[in-house]
Design brief:
The chain has 356 residues and is α/β, with parallel strands linked by helices. The protein folds into two domains: 7-156 and 300-351, Quinone Oxidoreductase, Chain A, domain 1, CATH 3.90.180; 161-294, Rossmann fold (3-Layer(aba) Sandwich). Helices cover 26% and strands 24% of the residues. Strands 3, 5, 6, 7, 8, 15 and 16 form a seven-stranded mixed sheet that branches. Strands 11-10-9-12-13-14 form a six-stranded parallel sheet, with helices on both faces. It has a three-stranded antiparallel sheet with strand order 2-1-4, with no helix packed on it. Helix 10 (283-286) links the parallel strand 13 and strand 14.
């Protein structure tokens, strides 16, 4: 008599606007470098909302979503040398083979066999179990005393805010920095910008609750841009000079436009936001201003440093979490996160039924 295939709960994408919580086969090892992880905590990303709207063409119907989380190794392939069954691990949103040209260039986001594949081109982490390729170069051991909820924030949003915003923006001591967008990634940029002691951090958003949170997290000024006067207010604050660094953390034409209008001569615009439509680049104004504009998909190469900062108490990402759900409440969690303004939501945590 054949044994029954083990099943698990998982969030499944079925095309634009369609998602279900279903029983799915538990994943198994495919390659020697794989592990299977029993998820304990995961979360929902703004990118997941883009997928659920049908904006990400690479995600096929039937895909298990999610690219963040922590868990316990359940199985290891024969080629895995750094981890063993029972280890607690932090899952990076970026899968790195560690051997290709892009990995050697410190750019695993474009890994020839990996990159952002979890919850995109392979099944992801919003499930009770997940198969993870290239485990030795894509996972991080979790220290014994670490708090799992805080560790989840290291999967994606903290390295994204830091690498794509702060590092690309080359924030320096004494700078005036503007962060446009006070969602989880914008707030992550706010927290990590303070590593470099800028003189002023101006946060711009449409939501008063998020702006208040930004002030609690270390912003020196906040601007609600609902009235369309954000540019005017920033220029007044900077005595007409503009900011040294403008970090775009929304992914919209309007917010990228604000960045172009408030950046000062010699300044930097660091784009973090995921843009689903074209934007206008005003080179007729910027061509002579010595402006640098950067884009980046997170590489998550800063995760070990950020993990050390969290463990030392210098970085406290748990404060970004506002809501907690069980994995079988994932549909409700998605709706809460999608209506962040109404629900005063930032980051949500999903705990698997198998959590210990």
């Amino acid at each position: 008599m054949m044994s029954k295939t083990p099943v698990m709960k998982a969030l499944i994408y079925h095309g634009s606007g369609k998602k279900t919580l279903e029983d799915m086969p538990k994943p198994s090892l495919r390659e020697a470098t794989d592990v299977v992880v029993r998820m304990t905590k995961t979360t929902i990303c703004g990118t997941d909302l883009h997928i659920l709207k049908g904006d990400v063409a690479t995600v096929a119907g039937g895909r298990i979503l999610g690219h963040e989380g922590v868990g316990i190794i359940d199985e290891t392939g024969t080629g895995v040398s750094h981890f063993r069954k029972g280890d607690r691990v932090l899952i990076s949103c970026i899968t790195a083979c560690g051997k290709c040209e892009y990995c050697h260039r410190g750019m695993p986001s474009h890994c020839e066999q990996g990159g952002w594949i979890l919850g995109n081109t392979i099944d992801g982490t919003q499930a009770e179990f997940v198969r993870l390729p290239f485990a030795d170069t894509s996972l991080h051991p979790i220290p014994v005393s670490a708090e799992e909820d805080a560790m989840v924030m290291l999967s994606d949003i903290l390295p994204t805010g830091y690498e794509c915003g702060v590092l690309n923006g080359v924030v320096k001591p004494g700078d005036t920095v503007a962060i446009i967008g006070a969602g989880p990634v914008g707030l992550s940029a706010l927290l990590t910008t303070q590593f470099y002691t800028p003189a002023n951090i101006i946060v711009i958003d449409l939501d008063d609750n998020r702006l208040k949170v930004a002030m609690q997290f270390g912003a020196t000024a906040m601007i609600n841009s609902t009235d369309g006067k954000a540019v005017e207010k920033v220029m007044a604050m900077t005595v007409g000079k503009g900011v040294d660094v403008a970090i775009e953390a929304v992914g919209a034409a309007a917010t990228f436009g604000i960045c172009q209008e408030i950046v000062g001569a010699g300044g930097r615009i660091a784009n973090i936001g995921v843009h689903g439509a074209s934007v206008t680049l005003h080179l007729e104004k910027l061509w002579s201003q010595n402006i640098t504009i950067t884009t980046r998909l997170v590489d998550a190469v800063s995760t070990p440093m950020l993990l050390k900062s969290v463990m030392a108490g210098k970085l406290k990402p748990k404060q970004i979490i506002t809501h907690y759900f069980a994995l079988d409440e994932v549909i409700k969690a998605c709706d809460t996160f999608a209506n962040a303004g109404r629900e005063c939501a930032l980051k949500v945590i999903l705990s698997a039924a198998t959590s210990t």
